[in-house]
Design a protein that fits this description.
Blueprint lengths: L14 H20 L3 E2 L5 E3 H4 L4 H5 L4 E2 L11 H6 L2 H8 L2 E3 L4 H10 L8 E10 L11 E10 L5 H16 L4 E7 H10 L6 H8 L2 H15 L4 H8 L8 H11 L4 H20 L5 E4 L13 E7 L8 E6 L13 E7 H11 L12 E3 L4 H16 L4 E3 L6 H11 L3 E4 L2 H6 L1 E6 L5 E5 H9 L1
Parallel strand pairs: 1-5, 7-8, 12-13, 12-14
Antiparallel strand pairs: 2-4, 3-4, 5-6, 6-11, 7-9, 9-10, 10-11, 14-15, 15-16
Helix pairs in contact: 1-7, 1-14, 7-13, 8-13, 9-10, 12-13
């Protein structure tokens, strides 16, 4: 019999890892709620037509289709089978797909429930998504996104607050990062100046690969897409821009003086940078990255990407403004903006930096040793009070050897072990051992609770 396995690009998460992942989710969730975002969940699968055409050609190729149940080939014509037309065949046998991200399902939800929700509508989602990508370090086929979006508001205050959320979360997680920001209107302006406004999406797809393939690779791809030298020379001008955020924005403004749309993008970024600078950030920095494109079709304004410092990793967060995402489902004129935390990549970064706080390797805070039936019953009564006090506690389920019970606590990373024998029972006390320091003392239950909480 062959050994069981899991699909490439997916992972099992042990209890020790899940405790740390839940720590990350908890920090993100708290920040979302502090800024007024409410929780929402959508189904793991959507109708194919809901997802396709929203992420560009590159994104559509990465959508996992789900085969129809039953005899899914019954309605497929012989011509389709014989010509081996993959696109036509897929439409015939797969009506559903796993969600590619959380933003498009959110837009679908808003349209379906537009008469039940109050605008501006602020929601967050922490759920898995799936992409048929090539697995590699930091890139998985199944991974969690932690999204916050607000729709029904054009105000740039939303962008400023989302930058603050990035900073608050990553500061608490001890992941100093650079928040990179650009504006799709600026990219459109560049395409206008370069004389390729009708091919902006092709340009952004190429530029978005800069980190992966470098300047020469981007230029080669642009030539492969048959852009002329004049257009390529305009685009090349982006790669050599230097100076602080303000000076580069001023240089771009001069470059785009013939583009009204491009100038509007510059003005929007100037406003965001000014407000963020006034409010200040903690451990994060904000930086203009004029080559940042985020190759998703639905972005129309500010776009974000976050890179952790001192770690070789792709972006750990992203997001942007979309002026008419709900319009694809029939609800026009509803602007939105959102961000997404890549929890899996953040976990990898925190592991590499070794910044998880102590205690995140176990949910149990204290283990009671089991000496026998009489002591067991006595400890069970104490456990009831300790748990009421908000402490996670357990008792070893049988009166095994002490060595085995202490090894269990050590293996699970439980920070405290309590022993209650006849002497402790007679005095109404507990012998509490700190597993990290080795210190052990006889104390009251109330003092034990305070010691563990502190």
């Amino acid at each position: 019999m062959s050994q069981p396995s899991i699909p490439k690009g997916t992972r099992d998460f042990s209890p020790e890892i899940m405790v740390k992942r839940n720590y990350i989710f908890g920090i993100i969730r708290q920040a979302f709620e502090r800024f007024g975002y409410m929780p929402l969940e959508t189904p793991s699968m959507e109708n194919v037509e809901t997802l396709t055409g929203k992420y560009g050609d590159e994104g559509d190729k990465l959508i996992f289709r789900i085969l129809d149940s039953g005899d899914y080939l019954k309605e497929v014509g012989d011509d389709t089978l014989q010509t081996r037309n993959l696109n036509q065949l897929t439409k015939s046998i797969a009506e559903k797909a796993l969600r590619y991200d959380l933003t498009v399902p959110f837009a679908r939800y808003v349209v379906m429930n537009q008469n039940k929700i109050a605008f501006p509508f602020k929601r967050y989602q922490i759920q898995p998504v799936w992409r048929a990508d090539r697995p590699q370090k930091g890139r998985y086929r199944e991974f969690y996104q932690c999204d916050a979006d607000v729709v029904g508001s054009d105000s740039l205050l939303n962008e400023v607050e989302l930058v603050q959320i990035f900073d608050e979360v990553l500061t608490k997680l001890k992941v100093p990062s650079t928040i990179k920001i650009n504006n799709r209107k600026i990219l459109y302006g560049i395409a206008e100046v370069a004389g390729i406004a009708d091919r902006m999406m092709e340009m952004t797809i190429a530029i978005d690969k800069l980190d992966k393939i470098g300047e020469d690779g981007v230029i080669q791809e642009l030539r492969g897409r048959e852009f002329n030298d004049d257009s390529i020379n305009v685009i090349k001008g982006l790669f050599g821009m230097t100076g602080d955020n303000e000076s580069r924005l001023n240089a771009i403004s001069v470059m785009l003086r013939g583009s009204e749309t491009g100038q509007k993008g510059v003005d929007e970024l100037k406003s965001i940078f000014k407000d963020v600078q006034t409010l200040g950030l903690n451990d994060c920095e904000i930086e203009l990255d004029i080559t940042l494109a985020r190759g998703l079709n639905y972005y129309t304004g500010a776009i974000f990407e976050v890179k952790a410092k001192n770690v070789q990793m792709g972006s750990i967060c992203g997001g942007g403004r979309y002026d008419d995402l709900t319009g694809i489902f029939g609800l026009k004129g509803v602007s939105g903006v959102g961000i997404s935390f890549g929890a899996d990549r953040i976990f990898d970064v925190m592991s590499e930096l070794n910044v998880f706080p102590s205690g995140t390797d176990s949910t149990t805070q204290v283990l009671f040793v089991n000496f026998g039936k009489e002591e067991e019953l006595y400890c069970m009564k104490l456990l009831r009070d300790i748990r009421k006090a908000g402490i996670n506690a357990e008792i070893f389920p049988e009166a095994a050897k002490m060595k085995k019970q202490f090894k269990y606590a050590d293996d699970k990373g439980i920070p405290f072990v309590a022993t209650v024998g006849t002497d402790e029972m007679s005095k109404g006390q507990v012998s509490l051992k700190n597993m990290k320091t080795g210190d052990q003392k006889m104390i009251s239950v109330d003092d034990m609770i305070e010691a563990i909480k502190s």
